[in-house]
Design a protein that fits this description.
Blueprint (H helix, E strand, L loop, with lengths): L3 E7 L2 E8 L2 E2 L7 E2 L2 E7 L6 E8 L9 E10 L8 E9 L3
Antiparallel strand pairs: 1-2, 2-5, 3-4, 5-6, 7-8
Length: 95
């Protein structure tokens, strides 16, 4: 399945990010289309993951393209003082 998980700090708060498909389509070899992310915080008492919502990526292939794989990692890739997400994905054009 084309899902990936990364952790990052957002304004000092630990977050977990999940990258995966935005939809499904049986004509795609993997069955998945598009690319979206979901962000979670961690409850410090129960360690429960609490969803902060989803957001779609704007990708040149469009949300109808077949998603073959995605990988996401976090880090400080520039001189910024906050974590950033780096995303790599593989798509097959929309059908």
């Amino acid at each position: 399945m084309p899902f990936s998980i990364a952790r990052a700090a957002v304004l000092g708060t630990p977050r977990v990010f999940v990258a995966g498909p935005a939809g499904s389509n049986s004509s795609c070899p993997t069955g998945f289309t598009g690319l979206q992310f979901e962000s979670y915080t961690v409850d410090p008492q129960s360690l429960e993951l609490i969803s902060m919502g989803t957001f779609s990526a704007t990708i040149p292939e469009g949300q109808g393209a077949c998603l073959h794989g995605v990988d996401v990692t976090s880090g400080r890739f520039t001189t910024s003082l906050h974590d950033q997400l780096l995303v790599a994905y593989g798509m097959q054009g929309a059908r």
